[in-house]
Structures are given as C-alpha cells and as structure tokens.
Amino acid sequence: MKILITFVVTALLLVPTSLHADASLPIFDAHVHYSEDAWSRYDTTAILGLFTQANVTRALVSSTPDDGTLRLYKADAERIVPILRPYRSRADMASWYRDPAVLAYVEQRLAAGYYRGIGEFHLFDAREVETSQVRRLTELAAQRGIILHVHSDAAPISALYAVNPGLQILWAHAGMDASPALIGEMLDRYPTLLTELSLRASDIAPAGQLAPVWRELLLRHTDRFMIGTDTWASSRWPEYVELVREHRQWLVQLPRAAAQQIAYENAARHFASVSHRPRPQ
Ligand SMILES: [Zn+2]
C-alpha cells in the first residue's frame, strides 16, 4: 500500500511538468540569429518550419551579416521582428564599438526603417561604452525608440544607463553568468530594462525542476522577462525544437498567467506588429 501511495504521489508530482511541456503555449523567441553558416543548410522555409513545429509564433532576429535577417523578414514579415546587428562579419565582434566604418554601416542600414532594435552586440567591458561610436548608437536607439540587445555582464548595462536612463535595453541571456539576486537588483534599478533567458534554462530549472530562487524572481518581475533560444551557430538549428521545449518545461511550473506573459505577451507588447512598417523588396 505504501509503495502504491508513493507511486501515485510521485506520478501526481510529475504530471504538471509533462502536461505543461504542452506545446499549446505560443512562444515569442526573443533571441534568434540566422547567420551565414546556417544559410546553406536551412533555407528560410526550413527555419519558418522549425518555428511552426516549436509553436514559435514570432521571433526577434538578427544575423551576421544582416542579410539573413532580411531574408527571413521578407519570407514572413508578420512573424519576424528584425533588428540590426552591427557585425558585417564575425571579425567585427571584437572591434565594432570603436570602428567608425561599423557606425556608418549601422546608420545607413537603419535608414531603411524596418529595424526594431540594434543588436545583439557584445560589450566585454564598461569602458567600451565610452567610445563616440557607442554614444552615437545610444542616440540612434533613443531617437528611433528602438531597443539595444546587449550581451554583457551588469557593468556595461549600468554604463549605458548612465549615458541615457531612458534607453530600452534587452539584456541578452539575463547577463549569462549573473545570479538571480543580481538580475533582480538590475531590474529594480532600471525600469526600462528587459531581459531574455536564452542559454539559462539549466540554471532556471536544474534537472527540469524550477529553482525556487528563479520562481521568486520570475514572479516578482514577470513583465520584464522573455524567452530566447540563441541560434548563434548553425549547430543550434537541429536542436531548435528541443531548446524551446526546455523552456516550456519550467514555464509550465509557473502560474499559467505568468507563463503566458514570459512566453509571449511581454515581447508581443514590446514589439507590437506594425503593418505599415517598410519591408525589403
Ligand atoms: Zn549572446
């Protein structure tokens, strides 16, 4: 009898996880790259097919070079939210923040009018924010009311807000190594800071179980989090559906309304569809 009770209790405990990994929750993936190394292996139809398979109904996309983003946007302008990566090639990653040619490229591309943000870009040190190029980037973002998608630890984020407290920043990977306590402090301090959780599923839910410290954080700042997968290399695409499923596994351990906000609504509110936005020919 005792064994039976143990079995039933265990089974009941397991139900929410498996049930909710339920694919019915639409996802807005706020961290997608469609970069050159993926183009020959996955055409835009294949990428959009993976989104459909994973029930990803919208996606924030950037790429190195930018043409991949535009190809996807052209293929499905309702689903794809394009942002402009300041990397013409991978080599720009190390020097973009001090390169006048990159800034000129960004200004010229932004003029097309369809980008909803600039990024994802990397800042490895708060001092990198001091260059005239990064200053100008913050002005462009503020003027256009678009986000900066920033991969960095906390210090460059604070440096950007010191330049302009009104910036809208999407903090990639919630700072990657930042603890839940630090993420909470940053969200408390900067009311326009948003964050996405790519590459963090195993921190949030070790062995699939939502960690209490993350639950508390996600429920305290429910309106500031988004889901992301980060397809930074072409090897991520074969895993794409599984990457989304990993997020579903912890999402469903939250109250349904909170899960819906983080899965889709926060990003959808922020990147509301704008049907009159220009599109590439
Ligand atoms: Zn990143």
What does the model show?
The structure is a single chain. The protein has 281 residues and is α/β, with parallel strands linked by helices. It contains twelve helices and eight strands. The protein has a five-stranded parallel β-sheet with strand order 4-5-6-7-8. α4 links the parallel β2 and β3. α5 packs parallel to α6 and α8 packs parallel to α10. The longest helix has 19 residues. The relative contact order is 0.15. The site of zinc ion has 5 residues, from loops.
What can be said about this structure in brief?
This protein has twelve helices and eight strands.
Keywords:
single chain; binds zinc ion; alpha/beta; 12 helices; globular; three-stranded parallel sheet
Give the SSE layout.
Blueprint: H1 2-20, E1 27-33, H2 36-39, H3 44-53, E2 56-62, H4 67-75, E3 80-82, H5 100-110, E4 117-122, H6 132-144, E5 147-151, H7 154-163, E6 169-171, H8 180-189, E7 193-196, H9 201-204, H10 212-220, E8 225-226, H11 240-251, H12 256-270
Parallel strand pairs: 1-2, 2-3, 4-5, 5-6, 6-7, 7-8
Helix pairs in contact: 5-6, 8-10
The structure holds zinc ion.
The site of zinc ion (ZN) has 5 residues, from loops.
Q: Taking strands numbered 1, 2, ... along the chain, how are they ordered across the largest sheet?
A: 4-5-6-7-8
In quaternary terms, these chains amount to single chain
* Tally of separate helices: 12
SS-based structural class? alpha/beta
